From TrEMBL:
GO terms for molecular function: DNA binding. It comes from the Bacteria. Keywords: DNA-binding, Phosphoprotein, Transcription, Transcription regulation. InterPro entries: CheY-like_superfamily, NreC/VraR/RcsB-like_REC, Sig_transdc_resp-reg_C-effctor, Sig_transdc_resp-reg_receiver, Tscrpt_reg_LuxR_C, WalR-like. This is Putative two-component response regulator. Residues 149-214 form the HTH luxR-type domain. The lineage of its organism: Bacteria, Bacillati, Actinomycetota, Actinomycetes, Kitasatosporales. The modification 4-aspartylphosphate is found at residue 54. One of its GO terms (biological process) is phosphorelay signal transduction system. Residues 3-119 form the Response regulatory domain.
Amino acid sequence: MIKVLVTDDEPLIRAGIRMILTSADDIDVVAEAANGREAIELARAQRVDVVLLDIQMPVMDGLTALAELRRVAPDARVLILTTFGEQQNVLRALADGSAGFLLKDSAPAELMRAVRAAAAGDAYLSPGATRHVVDSLASGQSVRRAEQARRRLETLSDRELEVLALLGEGLSNADAGQRIHMSEATVKTYVSRILAKLGCENRVQAALLARDAGLGT
C-alpha cells in the first residue's frame, strides 16, 4: 500500500482528496495535516510514502515545510498542490527537492496517477501546467546552452525527436499518442528510450532539453 499524508488548510479539500485516493486498492491516506508544521510532526511520527503538500497555509506554508520534510522523512516523496497563479513557487519547490506538482483542479485519475508516480520514484508535473513551467525555466537560456542541447539531440531518431517535441509541450503519453497516431504504450516505450539516450532522469528534464534546443518552436 502507498501511504499518503494529505496537507491542506481546507477541510473540504482534504476530505475530497481522501475520498478519491482511498477508492484505489493500492493507496491509503494514513494522516491529514492542516499546515506545514503538523505535516512535519506527522511525517516524523510515522512512515509515509507520499506527502501531498499545499503551498498557501497558515502557521507554516508548504515551501517552508518542504525542506524540513526532506530532512525528517527523506524517503517520503513530496508532491506540491498548486494553482496556476503560483508558478514561481513551483519553480522553487522543484529546486528544493519536491517530486513535482499537481494542480488542485486536476481530475481524480490524474491525482492517483501522480501519487503512484511519486511513490515509484518518478517526478510528476501536471501536464496542464508543464508548458508554463518549462517556458519559465527556459526563457533566459543562452545561445551556447541551446547549441549544447541541440548536440545532445543528435543521437535521437526523427521519430524520437517528434515524441520529445510533444514532451516539451507538456503532453501526457496518452495525449501525445493521439497527436501522432501512436498507442500510449508505444509512446511510453519511446519516452523511456529518449530518457536513456539523453541521460535524463525524468520527462521534465527531457522537456527542458527540448525547449533549450528550440525543438518544435
